[in-house]
Specification:
The chain has 560 residues and is an alpha/beta fold. Helix content is 39%, strand content 17%. Strands 1, 2, 3, 4, 5, 6, 7, 8, 9, 10, 11 and 12 form a twelve-stranded mixed beta sheet that branches.
Length: 560
């Protein structure tokens, strides 16, 4: 059930670099006129390739940082503020500095931050912004791991906020200093000095109209309700953002062009989405699209291929290009076929416009290549220029861009042309069985997991049986495999609510199992164990239903 011959050898570095030179002309802050203007070039390229296009303007809650500085004993230090920082009053924010290490939960534990300013090592993140806000801090100063200061969005709220999660927006004024300035301040604080520190930060946070470009091409002879592959990447940038995310936009255009030239072999359609609000709205564009097009995505989207920051200079590491478990085999094949090097894989994280997990759409990629890890741990390995004014055309290596785009094209091509969409739910079931085995070892006889283990084994076996045969009705088989994903992905990558977006914070594998893990951490026979059992039973029921629905869908795939 494999695809037609893969045309990825036709990927053109010269064409992508020409496109990238055009894309590199604009600074594309979310909701600005320049962003809309830059999107017109991409739209024309897609029309030239035969795609029908639409640019949608929708409301999004966008936060654009302005000027910032930190005054230490009246000496002004250069600083940047962050998306969704609170703006400071005209007189600034002043308070005692408390050093909280890397800003983890353990670092904040036992520290009184009420009315104080947290001094934190490393890049600003939603996680430490949330901890600082909950600890009562009025400000947070980050010490960059290098002299360059990296723009960041610190909101943990995924997409535009609603009344439910509006209180989760940061309440601190957040800035970043260079390594040298921040280290000097840290040393004074650790020596017991109490310098007078004032933070000034301007931030413009408001509802704006932001653009979303959608381009689509159907498979030959397909109906209006036919399945499609979603290929997406954000279009908005920090500064010129040529690698992040101009190179990915160029790669998307090239994949669209190459695949469209062989459209006769498609079994599914291809839809491209270029998001705004990734950098300045915490994935507001993709979250809006998921919410607004929920029903259609549920019925028709077989998989989501996301792409970010292709072809950076020195980006030699592709071993950890991530995928949800049912697409892990495809990520491995794409990387190893194109590069000839081993792929170890990685779990999809809560980033990169992964707004479709609740719907149950399996996804892959995001970042494909990275720099080799350096001596200093960083939030990612995308290069020292990432999220700085230095992300310019010279940071993209044409050979690396071709390599990464061929990896991308390989995966997209198979999703478009395989006789049956290549979703390996047996691998998902095996991953769950490993989690359940570990829990069973911890719980012993305290909590019965046998029904879940049996149900996961049934999913595994049904998936293997479906993979072993070529169905007579391939469209029906596709839809059955999609229904299995709709059951399994939400419990593997969210807490099981198909209509909500979890915060932009780390989640464990199979979050639905967290109540059972909490039970395993209690003392047998204690009141705490009894309370935990209440939620554990509900979690077992929730997962059991998902597995039953997946097995039924896979049984149908076997019967077609």
């Amino acid at each position: 059930m494999t695809a037609a011959a893969n045309p990825t050898g036709a990927v053109s570095g010269a064409r992508m670099m020409a496109d990238l030179r055009e894309i590199a002309r604009w600074v594309k802050l979310s909701g600005t006129d320049e962003e809309v203007e830059a999107l017109r070039f991409i739209e024309q390229r897609l029309r030239d390739a035969g795609f029908r296009t639409e640019t949608i303007l929708h409301d999004a809650y966008i936060s654009l940082p302005g000027p910032a500085r930190v005054e230490v004993d009246n000496a002004a230090l250069s600083a940047i503020t962050h998306s969704f920082s609170r703006p400071s009053p005209a007189t600034g924010v002043t308070g005692e500095i408390v050093h909280v290490g890397n800003g983890t939960a353990a670092d904040f534990a036992g520290k009184d931050l009420t009315g104080r300013i947290a001094l934190i090592e490393g890049m600003a993140t939603p996680a430490n912004a949330r901890l600082a806000s909950r600890a009562g801090a009025i400000g947070q100063i980050h010490i960059s791991h290098q002299e360059h200061r990296h723009e960041m969005c610190i909101s943990p709220v995924w997409g535009s906020p609603s009344p439910t999660n509006l209180p989760e927006l940061p309440t601190t004024v957040a800035v970043t200093l260079s390594q040298s300035d921040g280290a000097a301040l840290r040393e004074r604080v650790l020596r017991g000095e109490r310098p007078r520190v004032v933070i000034h930060a301007a931030v413009d946070t408001a509802w704006r109209k932001t653009p979303l470009l959608v381009a689509e091409l159907d498979a030959p002879g397909s109906g209006a309700d036919a399945p499609f592959v979603l290929l997406s990447g954000h279009h908005d940038t920090w500064y010129f953002g040529v690698m992040d995310n101009g190179s990915a936009n160029a790669g998307m255009l090239e994949v669209a062009r190459v695949c469209a030239e062989h459209r006769a072999e498609w079994k599914r359609g291809l839809r491209l989405c270029f998001w705004s609000g990734h950098s300045h709205g915490r994935y507001s564009g993709s979250a809006w699209y998921a919410d607004t097009h929920w029903d259609e995505l549920d019925r028709r989207c077989v998989a989501h291929v996301n792409v970010d920051s292709l072809g950076g200079i020195g980006a030699s590491e592709l071993a950890h290009a991530a995928a949800m478990t049912e697409l892990g085999h495809l990520a491995r094949e794409a990387v190893e076929t194109v590069t000839g090097r081993p792929h170890r894989g990685g779990r999809k994280a809560r980033n990169s416009d992964e707004s479709f997990g609740g719907i149950g759409v399996p996804s892959m990629f995001g970042i494909i290549s990275e720099q080799a890890p350096g001596a200093v741990a960083t939030r990612n390995n995308l290069g020292w220029w990432w999220h700085t004014p230095h992300d310019t055309l010279d940071k993209v290596d044409e050979a690396n861009l071709v390599r990464d785009t061929r990896v991308l094209a390989h995966a997209v091509w198979r999703l478009l042309t395989d006789v049956v969409v290549p979703l390996d739910h047996a691998a998902t079931a095996e991953a769950l069985l490993a989690e359940l085995a570990a829990l069973r070892d911890r719980l012993g006889e305290r909590f019965d997991l046998s029904v879940l283990i049996a149900a996961a084994e049934r999913v595994r076996d049904a998936s293997r049986a479906a993979q072993a045969r070529t169905p007579s009705d391939t469209l029906r088989a596709d839809r059955a495999l999609m229904r299995a994903s709709r059951a399994l992905v939400p419990v593997d990558y969210t807490e099981g609510d198909r209509f909500a977006h979890p915060p932009a914070l780390p989640l464990p594998a199979w979050p639905v199992l967290e109540p059972i893990r909490a039970l395993a951490a209690t003392e047998a026979g204690s009141d705490a164990a009894r309370f935990a059992t209440v939620e554990a039973i509900r979690a077992r029921n929730r997962l059991g239903l998902a597995l039953r629905c997946a097995a039924a869908a896979l049984d149908e795939a076997c019967a077609t």
